[in-house]
Amino acid sequence: MTLRMARAEAAVPTRRPAWPAAAARTLAVFVQAAFVGAAVAQPALGPLRTVEQLDLPRYMGAWYEIAKFPNRFQAKCASDTRAEYTAQPDGTVRVVNRCRTETGETTEAVGLARQVGGPNSPKLQVRFAPAWLSWWPGVWGDYWIVDLEPDYQLVAVSEPRRAYLWILARSPRVDPARQAAMVKRLAEQGLDVSRLQPAPDAGPLGQER
Fold first, then answer.
1. Taking Cα atoms as reference points, which of 190, 194, 195 lies closest to residue 45?
2. What ranges make up the beta strands (E) of 90-140?
3. pLDDT digits (tens, 9 = 90+) for 71-99
């Protein structure tokens, strides 16, 4: 943002004298200091943290969307959004995402996930592109478990840039207190939880239906 200083006219003085240039410079210094102070008061976000470890077999099964950051690839989903994860013999995970459109049709996307790191790594990558494109890094998207309750009933998934976020649960309804506690933890991680859009099936965030 640029501050434009008003120039004092060099004409004959009128009944309303121009504001002294020294006063204008002083104000500019104070305004600039305020902007600098605001920037200093907001520390840069550190790297996004994941949970310490993930028991992948326990993570398998059905998960229902509770809330998400709006995104273009779910634009057609109106309700009943869920994911099904199935372990494969080669260590990968079959991913099936389903949702219901406004016309009542069910649409699905089938993909593949793989762990990045050891067998307990909470970092995965997912692709929905054809298998023959799997060599290209650009088809893989990060899928990081950033919050997970000990009973594996409620989870939050994001990625390093914090551009995407999903809250998933084992059932379409979640205890509001547990949900609110997770949202609070996500906010402490630097995720902009004001962007969260509740799933129609789940009701408003942190409220009973």
1. 190
2. 93-100, 106-115, 123-127
3. 988 888 989 999 999 999 999 999 999 99
Confidence category of residue 131, pLDDT binned at 50, 70, 90 = low
Question: Confidence class of residue 66 from pLDDT cuts 50, 70 and 90?
Answer: very high
Task: List the one residue out of 97, 87, 17 whose CA is nearest residue 54.
Answer: 87
User: What is the separation of C-alpha 176 from the centre of its chain, rounded to a whole number of angstroms?
Assistant: 20
For residue 184, which of 206, 157, 164, 200 has the smallest C-alpha distance? 206
The pLDDT of residue 62? 98
Average pLDDT, the chain: 80
- The answer to whether 54 and 120 have CB atoms below 8 angstroms apart is yes
Q: What's the rounded Cα separation, in Å, for the pair 37 and 186? A: 26
Cα-to-chain-centroid distance, residue 190? 10
Q: Smallest Cα–Cα separation from 200: which of 173, 164, 161, 166?
A: 173
56-198 carries CATH number 3.40.50.720: no
Q: Measured at the alpha carbon of residue 7, what is the angle toward residues 5 and 8, in degrees to the nearest 5?
A: 135
